Automatic annotation (TrEMBL):
Its EC number is 3.5.1.88. It holds the Pfam family Pep_deformylase. It comes from Stella humosa. The active site is at E145. It catalyses: N-terminal N-formyl-L-methionyl-[peptide] + H2O = N-terminal L-methionyl-[peptide] + formate. Keywords: Hydrolase, Iron, Metal-binding, Protein biosynthesis. GO terms for biological process: translation. This is Peptide deformylase.
Length: 181
């Protein structure tokens, strides 16, 4: 397999809506996912969307680590997942503010409002349907990765840019999200 180059903010592949995949079981989709997994393992991230590796297709991979869970009943850990042509449906109006970074926006992080609870559907690499209802960290991670498929990077979702900065500075001088409107 291969380690792929990550597209950075400003590249046109990150600004466009990704194309649907006609056949989720196609060998080229399996190869793409294998290379995306190698790339993610090399970098140590939580998720990756195909547009981030210069492939404008509706494919994402992600894993939900147990140490990141919020304690919400539907915030569940999962090993590495690959989803093709995923769709999100928010369940309710409740949102949460969560810190996010992105491999395509290196060195920065910001607080992003995300739906607390949602349902996502898609297809796995064997053509089987995937249908999950999740909340908390799991829901936020899924929203972040799925946004890449619609040409949206997390800074576009931010509502308070005083909660945006370089990782090193934010670690030294952490803002208090609890006091924000």
């Amino acid at each position: 397999m291969a380690i792929l180059k990550i597209a950075r903010m400003g590249h046109p592949v990150l600004r466009r809506v990704a194309d649907p995949v006609a056949d989720p079981t196609a060998p080229e989709i399996r190869r793409l996912v294998a290379d995306m997994i190698d790339t993610l393992e090399d970098i140590g991230g939580a998720g990756l969307a195909a547009p981030q590796v210069h492939v404008p297709l509706r494919v994402v991979i992600f894993r939900v680590r147990a140490d990141r869970l919020t304690g919400d009943a539907e915030d569940v850990a999962l090993p590495m997942q690959a989803l093709v042509n995923p769709v999100i449906e928010p369940l309710g109006d409740e949102t949460m503010l969560r810190w996010e970074g992105c491999l395509s926006v290196p060195g920065l992080r910001g607080a992003v409002p995300r739906w607390r609870r949602l349902r996502y559907t898609g297809t796995d690499l064997d053509g089987r349907p995937v249908d999950r209802t999740v909340s908390g960290y799991h829901a936020g991670l899924v929203q972040h990765e799925f946004d890449h498929l619609d040409g949206i990077l997390y800074p576009a979702r931010m509502t308070d840019f005083s909660l945006f900065g370089f990782n090193e500075e934010m670690a030294k001088y952490p803002p208090d999200m609890e006091t924000r409107p």
